[in-house]
Write a structure and sequence with these properties.
The chain has 15 helices and 22 strands. By secondary structure, it is an alpha+beta fold. A hairpin with a 5-residue loop joins strand 4 and strand 5. The two termini are about 20 Å apart.
């Protein structure tokens, strides 16, 4: 990957300094790879965590039934070497590998899949994201290497969801025995690495799973791992993380701050690498039930007033791409004929649209209509202050007053429930168009996460068609049509398309990062020392 950083270098030269580092740094053990990150998970249980910090470790310790190609478009075998789907789209029959063992040497069988799913889908216990499993009728094991997965209604995205870390197969017996300590004191998985020790908010140590040989061929190494040990090290401070990478105290990180990219790109001893595909979009949502925002032309006027390119350059130093679609144009089932013109930065178009709707410019420099100033309220996270300030500046410059209210992650959800906002800003990960559309746009999701309050019969109809499709063509047709319909309705202002960037030091060979769930180091099978 080559990243353009002319403006970044100028800013760094203008006073953004890296922290001082030791000349030599701490020597690392031979055969050990140390990865730096800024935060830890509360536990390593795929059914009780939705955190990236959990996902990135769990992919190394466990396996899913299926996985995805590097472009996230093709389903590949994993623990299941093959499968069939019934004509009615309700029954999946998975045929499992017969050579898989857990870290403790126990053989993996179909009963572990059934036990994992039964634990996840039980109404007891604080389990998360079980909706990804579809409307399950039954999951059974007719023999040790066959799983029959029956649905009450078709789920066209099920196999794609099954590649995500919540579907990692656990050791159900261990989970039952440990209770709340499962994923805290131990984790017995089938992954390329085995849980060794965890000191919360400091480090987690994984050891090579000897004999592991069931990795997905299409993704590279099938096993065993090429390094003996992986250490995940928590380094909360950005400057310290940067200094640790430069000093050789860590071998890689996906948490490199944007201001440091140019420094490492200019140093031939380091490499910046990215997945082929990994999707996270930043956007501003528009609440269509608010007085001004009911008008689609006002929504378009707001969209044209915000300069996402300037935000990408000035705040993220060019490490992200400006977006003009709700989800990546590279995602499965994005229709390339979708009209994205309403999402381009064009303040002249803002002026023309508002004049067309009967707004006039007031003496205070803001648009008004029927004696009421065009003033909007914006809710955002306090961690995105710079983005909020840039958006406020753009809108005010275009004659739209914006009141910005920022909250921490513990308070913003309650504020959003008060329904007193016109605009809100968030970012979200997704696998493909269907995943993105299901997350946010169904009327069943009002008031959260459908915070636009978009209640639309055509949307619900096309969602149902896409979700119940029993072949790829029918699914793509429905989701493409829905994507076009929602973009034409102008419900969001897309801001940025973010892809994780992995920075690696001279000890690590360059590898292809993973894209699923944002866990760029993936299974760790492709980690190799020079």
């Amino acid at each position: 990957m080559s990243l353009s950083r002319t403006s970044s270098l100028a800013r760094l030269a203008g006073g953004v300094a890296l922290a001082a580092i030791t000349a030599a740094g701490a020597a690392q053990a031979e055969g050990t790879v140390t990865i730096g990150r800024t935060s830890d998970a509360d536990r390593y249980d795929p059914q009780r965590s939705s955190a990236l910090a959990a996902a990135e470790v769990l992919y190394m310790m466990g396996d899913t039934l299926v996985t995805l190609s590097h472009d996230l478009k093709t389903v590949e075998p994993a623990l299941a070497e093959s499968w069939e789907l019934s004509d009615d789209g309700l029954t999946y029959t998975f045929h499992l590998r017969k050579d898989v063992t857990y870290c403790d040497g126990k053989a993996f069988t179909a009963k572990d899949v059934v036990g994992s799913m039964e634990r996840w889908l039980t109404p007891e216990g604080p389990y998360v994201s079980a909706w990804k499993a579809g409307t399950v009728d039954s999951i059974t094991a007719p023999d040790d290497y066959t799983v029959v997965y029956k649905l009450k209604s078709p789920s066209s995205g099920l196999l794609y969801q099954m590649a995500q870390f919540n579907f990692i197969i656990i050791d159900p017996e261990q989970a039952a025995s440990l209770g709340d300590d499962f994923g805290v004191k131990a984790f017995n998985g089938t992954g390329a690495y085995c849980f060794d020790s965890w000191t919360p908010n400091d480090s987690l140590v994984l050891k090579k799973h000897e004999g592991y040989a069931w990795g997905t061929a299409a993704l590279g190494n099938t096993g065993p791992a090429k390094v003996d040990e992986v250490v995940w090290k928590i380094i909360p401070e950005e400057a310290t993380l940067v200094a640790s990478l430069q000093a050789g105290e860590i071998d890689g990180t996906y948490a490199l701050p944007a201001w440091a990219f140019a420094q490492f790109e200019a140093d031939p001893g380091f490499k910046l690498i990215q997945p082929v595909a990994s999707f996270r979009t930043h956007y501003v949502g528009m609440k269509v039930t608010r007085p001004f925002m009911q008008d689609i032309k006002v929504r378009e006027a707001v969209s044209h007033a915000i300069d996402q390119g300037a935000i990408a350059d000035a705040i993220f130093f060019g490490t992200v791409k400006p977006a003009e679609a709700y989800y990546s144009e590279d995602a499965l089932d994005f229709d390339p004929s979708t009209d994205l013109a309403p999402f381009a930065y064009d303040p002249d178009k803002t002026k023309a649209l508002l004049e067309e709707e009967g707004f006039t410019m007031g003496s205070d420099g803001f648009w008004q209509k029927d004696g009421e100033k065009l003033a909007l309220t914006y809710y955002g996270f306090n961690t995105s202050r710079e983005q909020a300030e840039a958006i406020q500046g753009d809108l005010r410059k275009a004659g739209i007053d914006l009141n910005v209210e920022l909250y921490d992650s513990t308070a913003i959800w309650a504020k959003l429930r008060e329904q007193t906002y016109d605009l809100y800003q968030m970012d979200y990960p997704y696998l493909n168009a269907g995943d993105a559309l299901n997350l946010y746009f169904s009327s069943d999701s009002i008031p959260s996460p459908n915070r636009m309050m978009w209640d639309d019969a055509e949307t619900d109809k096309l969602l149902a068609e896409g979700n119940s499709a029993v072949n790829d063509e029918a699914r793509a047709k429905a989701f493409m049509a829905l994507g076009k319909h929602l973009h034409e309705s102008i419900l969001w202002k897309p801001l940025l398309l973010e892809k994780p960037t992995v920075a690696i030091g001279p000890r690590l060979k360059e590898f292809q990062p993973a894209g699923i769930s944002g866990a760029a180091f993936g299974t760790g099978l492709n980690l190799e020392l020079n």
